[in-house]
Amino acid sequence: MTGVDRFLDKRVIAYFISPHGFGHASRSASVMEALYGLEPDIRFEIFTSLPCWFFEESVPCDFGFHPLVTDIGLIQASSLEEDISETVHSLERFLPFHRTVIKDFANQLKRLGCCMVVCDIAPLGIAVAADAAVPSVLVENFTWDWIYQGYAGQNGGLTDHIKYLEKIFRLADYHIQAEPVCCPSGVDLTVSPMSRRTRSTSGDVRERLGLTADEKAVLITMGGIPEQYPFLNRLGEIEEICFIISGFSEKQETAKNLRLLPYNSGIFHPDLLNACDAVIGKLGYSTLAEVYHAGLPYGYISRNNFPESKTLISFIEQNINGIAIQSNSFLDGEWISALPDLLSMGRIKRQGSNGAEQAAQFIIDRILGEVKSVVPRIF
User: Fold this and answer.
1) What are the two backbone dihedrals, phi and then psi, of residue 63, each rounded to the nearest 5 degrees?
2) Together in a domain, 153 and 270
3) Would 294 be classed as within a structural domain?
4) The domain containing residue 323 runs over which residues?
5) How many angstroms from the chain centroid is the CA of residue 147?
């Protein structure tokens, strides 16, 4: 047994997760859930600055939680608008990674017995894995260097960060891409959309929300970034539809046909979505993946400048019943007139596999089956 191998425990996986909204955490939780289903003795050590409650709700097995800024991503001025200038300032404080910081976290992985690192586009985890000499797995449908290239023309301060991150992401030992893929490349595995599995029946969730089985319900969600909803009064006038707004308030509120929920509502988000008849929400990976597997109609609000949007829209047009909603039409409530058309589209019954299970099987077969030492690499 080598000096590295003696620290390793094949049941312990470190997971570094980007805190950009809840989408990367949702995708990561879906893989952890699938891994646990295949390997019940598994344990995760989660590194992120996202709230612990999200993983307590989503990860069905034992895990350790380590609050840590693993990634900058994009600084948001609102749920639909990026602040590129502030993003550059934050990246200048975050990158390049300091050798001492990397070494300290590599030693922490060894103390925890981690046999590998999975990263959902948090580059810090890949750098730490390289120093700790354990395999790293990059899971993505885009990487930040690719996203930043879309803004480099308006802010030259991104150029050096793009080059550095390209180098870090290339260090990953294994590379999994999840559809819809923004920048397809020669990777180890490409999987279908990754989504957390539902746990409760639609009827149980509707009962908790005070809804009848035949009452129309529409979920409004803007991901993990709060938004204002100036059209609430107009929604209250549509008595035949119940509107459920996720992440609106600090506690659950009921007003006529409105159900205003906090992010941590106690209702598992995939269950909440599955209990509805349609979704109105910001175009993002996790919402798209959950809508796809539920087969629901999707009124999607895209960010015109965000590089990922074009890929996600193309996927929706080919695979999901959906209607495009412009951001200004969402905020002023003009989208409400499209509700009858959206609700008339109905559900699509899915029979394909979940990408999270495909990724988990790959990790079990290719990596956990034989943990190998990796020669540390300089970056």
Assistant:
1) -155, 155
2) no
3) yes
4) 202-344
5) 15
